[in-house]
Amino acid sequence: MHRERVLLVEDNRDLAASILETLEESGFDPDHASDGAQALRLVESTSPPFDAVLLDVGLPRISGFDVCTRLRNDGFRSPILMLTAQGAPDQVVEGLDRGADDYIVKPFESRVLVARVRAAIRRFLTVPNSAGVVQGAGLTLDTKHWRLLISSGETCTLTPLQGRLLHTLMRHAPRVVSRDELESALWGDDDRPASDALRTHLYQLRRLIHNAGGHAVIQTRGKQGYCLES
What we know:
The chain has 8 helices and 11 strands. By secondary structure, it is of the alpha/beta class.
């Protein structure tokens, strides 16, 4: 039976030991890095890649934010879940902005940690394996590799969560998609983040398209939701 491999990046020894024990008891195959540099080396040398990374923000040598950015820039596609301090919304926003898929606020219950990791891996594994291209509003989305081609000719790579968000909007365009529909497509009905993660991911997506020379195609329609327009 396949055991999903999870890399925990945490410098607090006692907390790391507790999380590793929880992951192992829950059927995962966990590994551990105590600083950012070690985490990058482990991800680079591990094949097949980790199924998920649990990444603390405050790490020695290289911060969790920078580790997340470098992993995404290097093409790491598996879920990254940031471990953030309670009452630190700026950390949540920056983590999502750097390419994290989700976050877990300290202190947390073991069952919540396990549920969030499983949900993130499950969402990642539902990404279509067959080649598929979706077009609309001057965008071409490769749903196999989550690569986005802008009408300007520029290409950018999305995280799986960003890809699913854009894919949902493209499939329903030009219809307005409600917030509830989008959150259900991204997180399911039982695993939704407590804060306004959807708005942050929409902001990231809009900025990626803008920086690649694309137009403002993702529109907000008041309390109704969001839509894609040429």
